[in-house]
UniProtKB/TrEMBL annotation, chain A:
This is Ribonuclease H2 subunit B. It is found in: Nucleus. Gene3D superfamilies: 1.10.20.120. The lineage of its organism: Eukaryota, Fungi, Dikarya, Ascomycota, Pezizomycotina. It comes from Lophiotrema nucula. Residues 134-342 form the Ribonuclease H2 subunit B wHTH domain.
TrEMBL record, chain B:
It comes from Lophiotrema nucula. The lineage of its organism: Eukaryota, Fungi, Dikarya, Ascomycota, Pezizomycotina. PROSITE patterns: PCNA_1, PCNA_2. One of its GO terms (biological process) is lagging strand elongation. HAMAP family: DNApol_clamp_arch. Keywords: DNA replication, DNA-binding, Nucleus. This protein is an auxiliary protein of DNA polymerase delta and is involved in the control of eukaryotic DNA replication by increasing the polymerase's processivity during elongation of the leading strand. This is DNA sliding clamp PCNA. Residues 127-254 form the Proliferating cell nuclear antigen PCNA C-terminal domain.
């Protein structure tokens, strides 16, 4: 388990700060310039673990990574409280809660937190493992999208490229021979290789890389999304607009059911008999959301002559999740020159036998159908807007009217009062009363009359 | 039933004139000991407390405690109709809707009568304890008015320092600074000009001059004004009236930014 430390390991002591000024009971110590940060670091890392600055694979900007020669690289994720929620950390040096090694680090680093420290920003930096692949990818990727011709190069050439890009890479590579082996092993996974004498030559293979990425994405999707992400990315995309009028025929995926008009009063039915009667929960939700009048959303065996409204086939949400995940990985870990070629590779239909890439075609078709429906609904809404949105006069309106009346009356009264103010009273309103306490703080309120 | 007869309408005219620029509406609490008034300004940093004892009236009759909520602007308008030496009679029912004012001219047989509609005023009443002040300065009220007026031209606030040497009013403003120093003196010929300083320990406090100038509108009520100061408590400015009635002002000191 990871543990919370008041500071990173000794070598990273540049991240931490000198203790606040000597404790003076009267005055608060001045706020330190280099504030302590809270890190959650992996457990049982080797003594040589350190924080290094390497180029971010996606943006190319220098970023901090945590490196352990045995376990590999970790990236830092900042977990911050929302801006409006004012939170801060109280950091104390509770030695009993830390193990011996920790104390030693504390001594070695010569940094003590003292009696306690409150940081203004409640940020937590969480180290999470990152695939070495992403970090070496910039060296293998073409410099621009046009540069498609890639040559086979030896491992050393790539390592030289890495070293020249960042001083920390150079230091790491020279210091830890194990790292070289790690890189070589990883390169085997996503590069085409050619044997040239004793050495192997490597070239980035987009297909292999994409397969790895898809595998990663599938692993993320294996456990379904947290509900907040589901709400944000999946549900809105799949929502079918509410249409009370005839819906034109449109083809949906896989099952190729006819979708045509259906009166709202009719119960909704399942599209095809091949589908199981219990659909995944997301499908259910989307159904109920677009057909509020349909009380029974599922479990009625389909008859061929009762065509249902457009539904979300159960295969769609997982595909959409996969696509969302992939686009996240692409945008946050893959160098920008590589992205277009990977995307085209993903969208072009693959012969199912040759690769294990998922077929996103059904999703695309479904989404385009949805988009068409949505634009139709929007057009319809603007026509019928002035009819449907009028409200009848009801009690609520009466209440509101009374409230408004009351407010108006009060305002008038206030204005009248203002007019009645004498010149002196008005002048006194402008007096600067800062530093003057209210008299009620001197004299007791409500005490008997003198 | 309330019936209070004042020999000189002037007294009420001046009292109302003095406080109408500090508060807008207030309750006149009438009971068998007289008519009392307590009100705070909008910012709640100043308080006016008036007490007209029964002895100030002839006769005075109040069967039941009643609170007359009056808009001071309206009262001023009505009192303007009274001449200084008119006889003024205040009348109200036990549960009144209006207060009735009668002005009688002592020379002619002119009698004028006015009713003022009352209002319900919700005001919190503060209990003000009898305080032993560290310094009590008594000086001619025109002198105090002049000091406040002169210094208010320079600054928003004045520091009042009481020491063995006397009392010093000092201020500092954008254009410069100024101070007025008074020593205690008593003259037999002209007791109105006496400056008396009763000091148990030196005090120095800062107050808003605009408020003090406002208080000084009561200067016509009394030849002398009494300033009572202790550190960390409100300043008391007292104008004593005939027959142990009084008009008192309290003002919270400025704490923190010494100017």
């Amino acid at each position: 388990m990871a543990r919370t430390r008041s500071k990173p390991t000794a070598k990273a002591s540049k991240e931490t700060t000198p203790p606040p000024a000597t404790s003076n009971a009267k005055a608060l110590p001045p706020s330190v310039e280099n504030v302590p940060k809270l890190f959650v670091l992996p457990k049982d890392t080797s003594k040589d673990a350190r924080i290094v600055t390497l180029d971010n694979p996606a943006s190319g900007t220098p970023s901090r990574y945590f490196f352990c020669p045995e376990k590999g690289f970790y990236e830092f994720t900042r977990i911050a409280a929302p801006k409006k929620a004012c939170r801060s950390w109280l950091i104390t040096s509770e030695t009993s809660m830390e193990d011996e090694q920790e104390e030693k680090h504390e001594e070695n680093g010569g940094v003590e937190i003292g009696s306690g420290y409150v940081t203004k920003s409640a940020d937590l930096f969480l180290a999470t493992p990152i695939d070495l692949l992403f970090l070496i990818l910039p060296a293998l990727a073409p410099k621009s999208a046009k540069d498609t011709k890639q040559l086979f190069l030896s491992l050393d050439d790539y390592l030289d490229k890495l070293s020249s890009s960042s001083a920390h890479w150079k230091a790491l590579l020279s210091q830890y021979p194990s790292l070289r082996a790690m890189i070589e092993k990883r390169m085997d996974a996503f590069c085409d290789t050619v044997d040239a004498g004793d050495d192997s030559m490597y070239r980035l293979s987009n297909t292999k890389l994409l397969q790895i990425l898809v595998k990663k994405a599938e692993r993320i999707c294996a456990t379904s999304f947290p509900s907040s992400m589901e709400e944000r990315f999946i549900k809105p995309t799949l929502d079918v607009p509410v249409m009370s009028i005839k819906r034109e025929e449109s083809n949906t995926t896989q099952t190729t059911t006819d979708t045509s008009s259906q009166p709202q009063t009719e119960t909704q039915t399942e599209a095809s008999d091949t589908q199981p009667s219990s659909t995944p929960s997301t499908t259910l939700e989307s159904q109920t959301s677009f057909e509020s009048t349909s009380t029974t959303a599922t479990s009625i065996e389909a008859e061929d002559d009762a065509p249902p409204a457009l539904q979300t086939p159960p295969t769609i949400p997982p595909l959409l999740r996969l696509r969302t995940t992939l686009s996240y990985i692409l945008s946050s870990y893959i160098p920008s020159p590589l992205r277009p070629s990977l995307l085209t590779l993903l969208s072009t239909p693959q012969p199912q036998s040759s690769t294990s890439l998922p077929d996103l075609q059904p999703l695309e078709t479904h989404l385009s159908t949805l988009a068409k429906l949505k634009s139709q609904a929007a057009a319809l809404r603007s026509i019928s807007d002035n009819i449907s949105r009028k409200r009848a006069f009801d009690d609520e309106d009466a209440d509101r009217a009374a409230e408004r009346e009351e407010k108006k009356r009060r305002k008038e009264e206030e204005e009248k009062r203002k007019k009645g103010e004498s010149r002196g009273v008005k002048a006194l309103k402008k007096v600067d009363v800062s530093g003057m306490k209210k008299l009620s703080s001197f004299f007791a309120v409500g005490a008997g009359k003198k | 039933m309330l019936e209070a007869r004042l020999e000189q309408a002037d007294l009420l005219k001046k009292v109302v004139d003095a406080i109408k620029d500090l508060v807008q509406d207030c309750n006149f609490d009438c009971n068998d000991s007289g008519i009392a008034l307590q009100a705070m300004d909008n910012s709640h940093v100043a308080l006016v407390s008036m007490m007209l004892k029964t002895e100030a009236f002839s006769p005075f009759r109040c069967d039941r405690n009643i609170a007359l909520g009056i808009n001071l602007g309206s009262l001023t308008k009505v009192l303007r109709a009274a001449q200084s030496n008119d006889i003024l009679t205040l009348k109200a029912e036990d549960a009144p809707d209006v207060v009735n004012l009668v002005f009688e001219n002592s020379e002619s047989d002119r009698i004028s009568e006015y009713d003022i509609k009352l209002m319900d005023i919700d005001q919190e009443h503060l209990g003000i304890p009898e305080t032993e002040y560290a310094a009590t300065v008594s000086l001619p009220s025109p002198e105090f008015q002049r000091i406040c007026r002169d210094l208010s031209a320079l600054s928003e606030s004045v520091s009042i320092e009481c020491s063995k040497e006397g009392v010093k009013f000092a201020c500092q403003g954008d254009i410069g600074s100024g101070s007025v120093h008074l020593r205690g003196n008593t003259s037999v010929d002209n007791p109105e000009k006496n400056v008396e300083i009763d000091l148990t320990e030196p005090v120095s406090l800062t107050f808003s001059l605009k408020y003090l100038v406002n208080f000084c509108k009561a200067s016509g009520l009394s030849k002398n004004v009494k300033l009572c100061l202790s550190s960390e408590v409100p300043l008391l400015v007292e104008y004593s009236l005939a027959s142990s009635s009084y008009l008192r002002f309290y003002l919270a000191p400025k704490i923190g930014d010494e100017e």
